[in-house]
Design brief:
alpha+beta; 17% helix; single chain; 6 helices; nine-stranded antiparallel sheet
């Protein structure tokens, strides 16, 4: 379905400076096919922080001069105490990422990202949603971030959100001063990798300002990935971007746009998604998302630019910044 309708869209994107299918295929397909035939191949040294950063940078995006696309798609469920998990809507999006390896081995991440909600039956993006608990029809609020910038250093990654800190991959134990090492596993011709972060911070969408949108004073979203990437593409030092496929799970409180703050329903959202970078091109983007972005936000497909680190752009913080308070006269903190 993607291939036979790509031509018109690609021509529109090329006017906007987005990467074309040919460029992504050259980054991903060519070198990987020739791995082991005289190319500079060396197994990843998983004890060396620089090697960890190198492997992660070319898997999660690219270390080449042009960005590549990765995407996700799946379903979000509601889990209410005493009830079975209830599927609510689809959750789909993509990232447009380029990584730059700095002289000390650290990695500067430059990207753009988005997430949309879709109808379970048709797969179409939904702009309004009928809340089954409150009976209210509400407008959805897609997450659109055109400044996804940060740095991964030689020590363990620590995220700071609204004054609280989260240590990446805390299941490994240890402190945030330890060298940057990830839980790579070698099985057959694949590297397996887990990537986790679990936040807990004061909710920027306060009950005083957004009584309907706020899910409470504290929010605790977390995201968990299991990733599989070909060893040949990581170990071949001439490959700029390695493919990956994996699973993506997200849990967290109700999205603010669901307007569950006064519902009295105590529950959480969990999502199970495919996460992948197969072609590295627009062909990886779910069809409905691609069409909507081309129409409304084509800048998300253009090349990300360098600039100051933006830190973690969390959904709740962005909602509080972008959506006016429900209570007239409320002054944001």
């Amino acid at each position: 379905m993607l291939i036979d309708t790509m031509t018109g869209v690609v021509s529109r994107r090329s006017l906007l400076g987005g990467i074309g299918a040919g460029a992504g295929a050259a980054l991903l397909g060519g070198p990987a096919m020739a791995a082991g035939s005289g190319r500079p191949t060396r197994p990843l040294d998983i004890e060396d922080p620089r090697e960890n950063l190198y492997g992660f940078a070319k898997m999660w995006g690219t270390i080449g001069p042009k960005p590549v696309i990765s995407a996700y798609q799946g379903v979000q469920y509601a889990v209410v105490k005493g009830k079975r998990a209830k599927p609510l809507f689809g959750f789909q999006g993509f990232a447009n990422i380029r990584n730059l390896i700095l002289p000390d081995g650290s990695v500067k991440v430059m990207g753009k990202e988005c997430g949309y909600f879709t109808d379970l039956a048709s797969g179409a993006i939904i702009d309004v949603w009928d809340n089954p608990w409150t009976g209210e029809r509400v407008e959805t609020w897609p997450f659109l971030n055109d400044k996804f910038r940060g740095t991964l250093g030689l020590t363990r990654k620590v995220y700071e959100v609204n004054g609280s800190k989260t240590v990446n991959n805390d299941a490994q134990g240890g402190s945030d001063a330890e060298p940057f090492r990830l839980p790579w596993q070698v099985i057959g011709d694949q590297y397996l990798l887990g990537w986790d972060y679990a936040h807990e911070y004061v909710n920027p969408v306060t009950p005083e300002g957004w009584p309907k949108a706020s899910s409470g004073r504290v929010v605790n979203p977390s995201e968990h990935f299991v990733l599989y990437t070909p060893r040949a593409e990581i170990d071949d030092r001439s490959v700029l971007s390695a493919r990956y496929q994996g699973g993506f799970m997200r849990q967290g409180p109700w999205w603010p746009w669901m307007k569950m703050g006064q519902s009295g329903v105590d529950g959480v959202l969990i999502g199970r998604m495919h996460s992948y970078k197969i072609t590295g091109t627009h062909a990886d983007i779910p069809r409905a998302v691609l069409d909507r972005v081309v129409r409304d936000r084509p800048d998300l497909l253009s090349e990300p630019t360098d600039g100051p680190d933006a830190g973690v752009v969390d959904t709740f913080g962005k909602y509080a910044r972008d959506v006016p308070p429900e209570v007239a006269g409320y002054k944001k903190p």
